[in-house]
Amino acid sequence: MADNKTILIAEDSSVILNLTKKILELQNYKILTAKNGSEVIKQVENNKIDAILMDLNIPIKNGMECSKEIRAHKDEQISNIPIIAVTGNANNYTMEDFKEVGINEYLPKPLDFDMLVQTVKKHTGEL
């Protein structure tokens, strides 16, 4: 059950962040947030996270850089966290680019909330 699963939402848009947070809280996920790349790294090092929704265009370190850093982490619990990229410009990237930095899957913006919930459930082992 989602009751004990924690999702990190890395998103610099308050509107998208709050909508996504509400949708996932309705599914009983615990939500942590990060508005930039350094906050993402701090959150993964200080909390047990079950999946990350990673906006690729966050400031300081973008989502691609954060994903690479997470995959290279020496702690296996951190380096194996599922990463779901969220982006409005997926056309700038190929699935190869995503795979190269260790992104498990991507969701296009505007977010389809049914797809969001289904994708999160899949990567947290609930489907």
UniProtKB/TrEMBL annotation:
Gene3D superfamilies linked: 3.40.50.2300
Domain of life: Bacteria
Record bears the keyword Lipid biosynthesis: no
UniProt entry tagged with the keyword Chaperone: no
Stored CDD domains: REC_hyHK_CKI1_RcsC-like
Alphabetical list of PROSITE patterns matching this protein: RESPONSE_REGULATORY
Keywords carried by this UniProt record: Phosphoprotein, Two-component regulatory system
Domain Response regulatory residue range list: 6-124
Modified residues (4-aspartylphosphate): 55
Name of the protein in its database record: Response regulator
Organism: Pontibacter amylolyticus
